[in-house]
């Protein structure tokens, strides 16, 4: 996959910081974050899988969101942790492109799964009488197929563009992962076309997703305002609050990094900003959905209750 004239066969990941005194504390901190991410997302996956009451469209998409977050975090964090404990954290050219591909695939897939969840909430609140027909298993599977097709398409566009770059001598990536901006900085043949590919794909993905989410929530808000009872409004807002929180966290941090040129956003600031959507968001998603969702908390209590009962027997 490497460009034919490229003399670089491996890269060195600079990591988050080069200060020796911070390496061990940061390693323990991010190892803790990763463990919380794995336990939280695996727990939510198992909880939804084991409880038949959670076999609904909303939890079908939440199940896939947790699966994406788990894989997404595993693509980035273990290699990042290596930079804290090794003198030189190297990655092969092919390995760098592979990490980039899966990173892009999971990021874009998460974007579209969040838009599918917004559409699901719109149908549930605005068209409750036809919800089971509109969000049938076949429709949910088609939506999920669309999510992953968009993820693969976007990842192939980004990875293909980066694979065409030539790296002449400098192989130090000023980041903790193989991300697009630092790789563009290293390339000898970087051109406007490569930057245009990045901007076009990111803008198209964010544009389609944000438009879908905004239209869905505009219609939801209009429907909620027509509900006369305070309890009904509160319940409707409650089903959407977790999703809105996750959307703002994910798209806010992502847009801040990718929709600004390197001259406006230096790489050092960019890699710190990218911690939000690469580390924080996959860790916080299961916490947000479990702590703010009564059904998830009830399912957790039920599952734990079954385990305690089996132990007593």
Automatic annotation (TrEMBL):
PROSITE patterns: G_PROTEIN_RECEP_F1_1 (PS00237), G_PROTEIN_RECEP_F1_2 (PS50262). The keyword Signal does not apply. Its main location: membrane. The keyword Hydrolase does not apply. It is a multi-pass membrane protein. Coiled coil: none annotated. One of its GO terms (cellular component) is plasma membrane. Keywords: Cell membrane, G-protein coupled receptor, Membrane, Olfaction, Receptor, Sensory transduction, Transducer, Transmembrane, Transmembrane helix. InterPro entries: GPCR_Rhodpsn (IPR000276), GPCR_Rhodpsn_7TM (IPR017452), Olfact_rcpt (IPR000725). Residues 40-289 form the G-protein coupled receptors family 1 profile domain. Putative odorant or sperm cell receptor. Belongs to the G-protein coupled receptor 1 family. This is Olfactory receptor. It comes from Moschus moschiferus (Siberian musk deer).
């Amino acid at each position: 996959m490497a460009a034919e004239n490229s003399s670089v066969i491996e890269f060195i990941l600079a990591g988050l910081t080069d200060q020796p005194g911070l390496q061990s504390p940061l390693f323990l901190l991010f190892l803790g974050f990763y463990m919380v991410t794995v336990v939280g997302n695996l727990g939510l996956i198992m909880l939804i899988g084991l409880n038949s009451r959670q076999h609904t469209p909303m939890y079908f998409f939440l199940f896939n969101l947790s699966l994406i977050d788990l894989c997404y975090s595993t693509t980035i964090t273990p290699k990042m942790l290596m930079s804290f404990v090794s003198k030189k954290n190297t990655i092969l050219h092919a390995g760098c492109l592979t990490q980039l591909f899966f990173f892009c695939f999971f990021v874009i897939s998460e974007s579209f799964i969040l838009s599918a969840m917004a559409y699901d909430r719109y149908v549930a609140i605005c068209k409750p009488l036809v919800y089971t027909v509109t969000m049938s298993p076949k429709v949910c599977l088609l939506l999920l197929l669309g999510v992953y097709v968009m993820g693969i398409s976007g990842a192939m566009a980004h990875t293909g563009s980066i694979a065409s770059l030539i790296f002449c001598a400098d192989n130090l990536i000023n980041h903790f992962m193989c991300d697009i901006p630092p790789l563009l900085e290293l390339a000898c043949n970087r051109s406007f076309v490569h930057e245009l590919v990045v901007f076009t794909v990111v803008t198209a993905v964010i544009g389609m997703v944000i438009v879908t989410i905004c239209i869905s929530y505009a219609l939801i808000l209009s429907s909620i305002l027509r509900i006369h009872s305070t309890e009904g409004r509160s319940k409707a807002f409650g089903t959407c609050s977790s999703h809105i929180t996750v959307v703002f966290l994910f798209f806010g941090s992502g847009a801040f990094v990718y929709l600004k040129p390197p001259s406006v956003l230096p790489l050092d600031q960019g890699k710190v900003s990218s911690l939000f959507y690469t580390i924080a968001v996959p860790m916080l998603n299961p916490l947000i959905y479990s702590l703010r969702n009564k059904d998830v908390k009830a399912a957790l209590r039920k599952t734990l209750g079954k385990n305690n009962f089996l132990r007593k027997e």
